[in-house]
Structures are given as structure tokens and as C-alpha cells.
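DM between two lab members

TW: hey, do you still have the Winged helix-turn-helix transcriptional regulator entry open?
JB: yeah, one sec
JB: this one, 117 aa:
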Amino acid sequence: MVVVEDELSLVFSALADPTRRAILARLALGEATVNQLAEPFDMTQQAVSKHLKVLEQARLISRTRAAQSRPCVLETVRLDAAAEWIERHRRVWADRHDRLAEHLAALRPRDDEEKAE
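TW: and the structure you got?
JB:
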């Protein structure tokens, strides 16, 4: 098993699971307890708690204390870092795609000339 150590890898690893993404989507609406987060899923509360631990390790959520409960809260700082990484790489690939399109467009007149001969 590969040990993931850097924060961005932890974030993307946590986001790779659809249940964890659904939990984050729910927490985007506001804080929630483990029971509230477990309601829409056909899984045990323990299974949801394991997903929450992964999200906590990636620092995508935190738990606060309110009387007897420990509601979960979305932490957007790590999501912002992941979005910045994606945007930076999207721009690199978009630039490369644009240059390839320009190069192919420049080749077309030559192709047309060669076909005419």
C-alpha cells in the first residue's frame, strides 16, 4: 500500500470516493452530525464515520463541539487549494491544445496545395 503524505494527495484521495463527495456536498449546506450525514446512505454509522475520518485527515472537514454532539463542518481551504491546482493544469493543457490547433491549421493550406498538384 502506498502511503500518501502530501496534503494535495490526501485531498484528491479523499475526493475520489463518491460517498465522501456526497458528504462534502451535504456539509456545504451547513454543519451536520454523523447521524444526519448517515441518513441518505445505505450504510452503517460506523462506515460513515470511517469516511469522516478520511475527510478529517485531508482537512476537508472539522468537528466542533455543541453540548453532547460533535457536528461536522466543511473546511474550504483545502478545496480551494485543489481547485487552484486543477485550474493551473487546465490552463497548461488548454494552451497546449490551442498551440496544436494553430499548428494543424497552419498545415492545412499546405495539404490543400499538395492535393492540388
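TW: got it. The chain has a mean pLDDT of 91. The two ends are 61 Å apart (CA to CA).
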